[in-house]
Amino acid sequence: MKIRKISPGELQVGQVLPWDVYGDGGGLLARKGQLVANRKELDSLTERGVYEDWSEALPQSRAPQSVLRLLNGAQLELQDVLQQIAAGNPAGNAQRMLGSIADLVTAAVLQNADVALACILHNRSSVPYSVRHSVDTAVVAQVLALALKKPDDDIQAMTVAALAMNVGMLAAHDRLQLSSGPLNEADQGLVQSHPQAGVVLLRQAGIEHPAVLACVLAHHENEDGSGYPGGKTGAYVPESAKLLALADRYCARLARRRYRPAMTPNAALRDILLEARDTLDSLLPAVLIRELGIYPIGTCVRLLNGEVGVVSRKGLNATTPWVTSLLGPRGTPLAPPLQRDTRSEAHSIREVLDMEQAGLHFHMEQVWGRAAAR
């Protein structure tokens, strides 16, 4: 057993402590199992904390880092940072803080993109929709950018922009999400102007990265010039903003609204294809479908044999993913869950179900293992 100092990056906001943490004098700072709730607490533990490392005395394989914890940590940190920026009084270096949160999203996607995408549908975090949606959008935008082999610096800037894209209407975002009718004139004006308002707030917070600001400003522009706030046509819109816009639209369709239920992932993709003719770069929706598949990870489905489960990973082609069956044909829970290759006729997908239809109640770890541990 060795006494080790906590290394930078060894802990993340939203992570449960894997060991007791002690101060330099030996006093207990935090118990194993305690949640690292915010950046201030994380910095304090990293600066002062040590722990007992038994890894050499008791050799064991290192568990993969939990993608769920990384994204929950990103959401918790982002909630605090966006509130500070929106209020006009960010504490500390806002650009550094947003960059650190973007690093958490990057780590999650690189660790396991399938689990990161599944979190959009199945992560039951308690942060406001406005915060969760920004992190979800960042995940999808990263998956697209990686598929297109974008440079790391471009992906980082786009991710920061995704996290901050709606700060210009942060106070009203959750209220508008719950609106059951048409927006009034004031709210329409707020929505139309939020990219510009966001850029102003980001500059006030000391964020001057040109690619970040350009992406935030243009994430609602359309190919045909029908977008806002500038009515720019596609040739004048940065490609990062186009990726962000596509990810934003996809994730928004997966969210429940008062005037409509949440769309299933395949319906959201179909809807985007229908509108892409004029408003989106025609090549990008094809990349989205290629990367997510016809049945995106996390989609609830019923198989031809009557089992109900969730798409857990990609198959050899876009139409035949692997499904983890959780309920038998009579609705009885399957213990353990069964892995089904939908290339098999008996296990082919019969229909896509929304969450209520599916009647599934499960923890993500049951399907995706330690990479989805809470």
**Span of the ends, CA to CA:** 27 Å
Catalogue the unreliable spans.
none
Strand content: 5-15%
Task: Give the assembly state of these chains.
Answer: single chain
Succession of helices and strands: EEEHEHHHHHHHHHHHEEEEEHH
What do you see in this structure?
With 374 residues, this protein is of the alpha+beta class. Helices cover 47% and strands 11% of the residues. It is built from 14 helices and nine strands. It has a five-stranded antiparallel sheet. The chain has a two-stranded antiparallel sheet with strand order 1-4. The model has no long low-confidence stretch (mean pLDDT 89).
Could you outline the blueprint of secondary structure elements for this entry?
Blueprint: E1 2-5, E2 21-22, E3 28-30, H1 39-48, E4 50-53, H2 67-87, H3 94-111, H4 113-122, H5 129-147, H6 152-164, H7 170-177, H8 185-204, H9 210-218, H10 239-253, H11 265-279, H12 284-292, E5 300-303, E6 308-313, E7 322-327, E8 333-341, E9 349-353, H13 355-358, H14 364-368
Antiparallel strand pairs: 1-4, 2-3, 5-6, 5-9, 6-7, 7-8
Summarize it.
The chain has 374 residues and is α+β, with helices and mostly antiparallel strands.
Keywords for this entry:
374 residues, alpha+beta, five-stranded antiparallel β-sheet, two-stranded antiparallel sheet, 9 strands, 47% helix
